[in-house]
């Protein structure tokens, strides 16, 4: 009786595990950790925050806003008793990676955004200016400020993404061409 030649099940499983491990390492090295991917995650996080704030504004019958700086953003709530905007849950602004920036247009007008606020040395972890005024408003009637927000890499030819709203629809992340327009 002759024995059939071939691979055993164990040998096949070992090869499959090796191929899977190498494919996983290739994905990590090439796609997941890239600046373009990280920029997309940041833009989607911001779009998600705007969606949540818009829903909360209607449900809570409260006005919310978004304070945007060139490298950071922060959700604010309006307190009718004090007549002031204040950070939600006293959280500091969310900072983008140092290689990324934000550019904002409100109703077709480009705004000059301030650099990210410095931290107050007396109370670390909290923003220095506690009465910031938001540029983007999310109102309790379901409307929001018409805006166009660009999230981009600082390097020439880097990824550029856009979030835009006409004041009624929530923004979605869109990819822009890599050719920079004059600012």
The total count of helices amounts to: 2
Give helix % range. 25-40%
Structural class: alpha+beta
Q: Could you say which overall geometry the principal axes of the C-alpha atoms support?
A: elongated
Q: Strand portion, in percent? A: 25-35%
Ranges where pLDDT stays below 50 over 5 or more residues in a row are 119-128
How does the major sheet shape up?
A: 5 strands, antiparallel
Rg, Cα atoms, Å: 23 Å
Mean pLDDT: 84
* Multimeric organization: single chain
**Annotation, overall tally of beta strands:** 10
Helix and strand element order: HHEEEEEEEEEE
Distance between the termini: 82 Å
Give a quick set of tags describing it.
183 residues; alpha+beta; five-stranded antiparallel β-sheet; 2 helices; 10 strands
Structure description:
Pfam families: GspH (PF12019), N_methyl (PF07963). The chain crosses the membrane at residues 12-33. The chain has helices at residues 9-32, 35-60, and strands spanning 64-68, 72-79, 84-87, 94-95, 100-106, 109-111, 136-138, 147-153, 160-165, 173-175. Strands 1, 2, 3, 4 and 7 form a five-stranded antiparallel beta sheet that branches. Strands 6-5-8-9-10 form a five-stranded antiparallel beta sheet, with helices on one face. It is built from two helices and ten strands; from the N terminus they run H-H-E-E-E-E-E-E-E-E-E-E. The chain is elongated and about 90 Å long. It is of the alpha+beta class and 183 residues long.
